[in-house]
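EI: anyone free to look at a 214-residue chain?
SC: sure, send it
EI:
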Amino acid sequence: MSLKSKNSLWLRKGLTLVEMIITLGMMIVFIGALFSAMIAGLTYWKDGRLRLQTQEALRESLDTMTTELRQALPNPDPGTNGNPPTGYLGITPEIDPSGILYPNENNSVGDYLEFTEPVVSVYIPSTTGWSEEQPDNYQKIRYYVNKEYLIRRVTRYNSSGVQVSEEDNNVVALREGEITMQVTSLSTSLVEIEMTATLSKFSYTIKTKVKIGG
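SC: here you go
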């Protein structure tokens, strides 16, 4: 075999090896780009799902409070610790005669919502014997937030207006982040509730106005 033929063979082999290296490099770059795109897509999907879950949690929170707040009635209690069950009439400074205890015209903005409503099992106003002055016919409700939870506190009283029970239950919980709430008294029968969820990558705010007792 001539020297020229040997050089040509070596050159072809060398070019084949270079081509393999180039091809391998291109494959690595392509796979890396594909993997990066997959990671970015998965992150985007997770973020989108988290946003949706957060929005649904806040909407559920507002729906729950709104539904119950529409049942609020003027409170004949809290005549606690042996005090007469005079309710909102006995609160100093005087507040508007509604089911809302807080916030009110004296404290128009607050970070929790407190009101009274009739106990469902006994609230039948058309029934003979119903007495709106009986404190055991009512319960006091407080909605407040603690980090990622919206909490509902129920306080019950006996016929003398003495507190007999208090129970907290988590109504809604975020999967991530924290909730803040601001409640504003707009009039004697209207409040505005604003809730914000704050997460590491975004925040979401929702608000609504609620007519008390309606």
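EI: The first helix runs from residue 3 to 69.
SC: 👍
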